[in-house]
Write a structure and sequence with these properties.
- Helix content is 18%, strand content 29%.
- The protein is of the alpha+beta class and 137 residues long.
- A hairpin with a 5-residue loop joins strand 4 and strand 5.
């Protein structure tokens, strides 16, 4: 029973997504003000092929996302399922590449969303310039 409580959704004050829970406290604090908590329904469309990837979607708890690739005959093939262990949209491409497949919610539930620009800024924090008159080696 204690192990189950340790894995309860709100036990550390973070969304029930393994990527977000693995961040250090200081890294999570950088993005926390920009996270949007929302509910998604089954079959909600997140991206179509060619869409600009502007939002990172973190499935939480029982939520599950499906990547669908169209065959030559027009049928969709489910290729990847992503749940609370990961995220979809903009993590790798940094939002500069279009979506290559349709991404839909398979099982609805809680999601946390983050604009790619906010993620990118916090991945590469600005280094303050050296003080005036300081020599640069």
């Amino acid at each position: 029973m204690a192990a189950r409580r340790r894995n309860a959704p709100n036990d550390i004050g973070r969304p029930f997504n393994n990527l977000l829970r693995r961040l250090s406290a200081s890294d999570f604090a950088l993005i926390a003000p920009h996270l949007a908590h929302e509910e998604a329904n089954a079959n909600d469309l997140l991206y179509n092929p060619g869409d600009d990837v502007e939002i990172v979607h973190f499935p939480c708890g029982p939520s599950l996302v499906s990547y669908l690739v169209s065959n030559e005959d027009g049928r969709d093939v489910e290729t990847i399922l992503v749940g609370r262990e990961g995220a979809v949209g903009g993590i790798v491409s940094q939002g500069y590449l279009p979506a290559y497949t349709r991404i839909m919610v398979k099982f609805g539930g809680p999601f946390v969303r983050l604009h790619v620009g906010k993620l990118d800024v916090n991945k590469h924090p600005r280094v303050p310039p050296p003080p005036l008159g300081a020599s640069i080696a």
